Automatic annotation (TrEMBL):
Residues spanning the membrane: 458-476
Keyword Transmembrane in record: yes
UniProt-recorded name of the protein: Oxygen tolerance
InterPro entries: BatD
Signal sequence interval, chain numbering: 1-24
Keywords, comma-separated and alphabetical: Membrane, Signal, Transmembrane, Transmembrane helix
Keyword Metal-binding (UniProt): no
Amino acid sequence: MIDNQKFKLLFVCFLWLCSWPLCAQEISVQLGNKNIALNETFTITLSISNDEIKNHSTFPDIQGFTKVGVSSNTSTTIINGDMSSTHSVTQSYIPQKEGRFRLKSFTMQVNGQTLRSQGDVIVVSAPREQQQTDPFAYDPFEDIFPRLPQAAANQKDDAFFSISANKKEVFVGEGLNVVISFIVGENNSTDLQFYKLGEQLAEIVKKIKPKDCWEENFGIETIEGVPVNINGKRYTEYRMYQATYFPLNTEPIRFPSAALKMVKYNLVAGGGLFGQAQEEFKSFVSQPVVVKVKELPPHPLRNSVPVGNYRLDETLGKTAVQTGQSITYEFKVRGEGNLSSLNAPEMFTTAAMDIYPPNVRQEISRNFGRVTGVKAFSYSILPKEAGIFKLSDVFGLVFFNPTTARYDTLRPNASFTVTGASKHDMDVQQIEADGFYNRILEVSNKLRSTDREEQLKVWANVVLLAMLSITIFFIFKKKRQA
């Protein structure tokens, strides 16, 4: 007869195998710099690899700090056809004064899993001068009291429902940030509560979401009140949804009015010492919003150019090589715009070198009403002729800048020198493109279905679970017989 200890061990193994897919997810929580100035921010970041953060609990409050907004970041890398990704959500905090502040240990729920942090001591020192090296950087202190659209500023009620856009007109492909929020004045005396907010919000978003637009959703999972200032009057904004839309054609973007039902409590007399609260429903209706979409100015590439405010960062592995020696070159586009739809730069072929398809790395940040990031194309170049080569003759990316309303071209400044004999007949096996092309002649070229490998893994897990189930069945059977 199998004793209880062995039975418990088998049962633990069974539970571990059942939960293995969840454990395979790499989820972490990171605390930002704990030594900051009064004009800097402290952050808490949730990250997950090869998946997305579908839901998470509320970030902790920190005494002496003010929450100023949640941002999200998506990083995608494609190397030799293999893709990996990381998704993160970051809560920013602004210190209220100098001193030492304790972030107590806390737990958070992320995709159904529990993350724990031991907390830390945050030291806030005197303000220090900020060196703005990135023209696309954004100062979160500008958003302590966000400037709301005029439609919201014209409201006279102490509480109102708002669907707002940050621009009245945009070009095709230009980003339009849209916010859905409920706003309550600090002098509001009515007790209001949300009513089935998840269901209502899903219907509202479905109703107002425009067609023929690329959406970058800011992924708001928790709703917290944030102080805002409208015409010198203080309000609290409860932001429920935020997204940036990039129109794909010139059709006007229309956001119809929508209603949000709230529970309102009125205090009535005769209900005891403190009165009695009477519950009723009240609907708050937003104002409709229409945004004009303008056609791009005439240009031969008008229908295919990316739209955004971009600049080029580049990295060249070597500046002097021999013919037949490979060079790595990274063409990195940085800025604000729809980076997800941005394609590789145009490449002008030349017989003097071979250029192989790039590895792609993309990082997109959605914060403070903007979609910014980096998209990098990493090329392997194999020179076959001697000479001095300017990469501006090889690569170029035409784009439209909606800020200046002009077309521009990103062209490299890098160049390199090649010496040695001609290598026109060089075999491809000599290239060093991250080791990938070196193995071309060593591996089989027979096509193989990747679906079969996945099916084998599934069946292997099924067999293991079946064996454990049979074992547990016989254990119970023997115990009954005993």
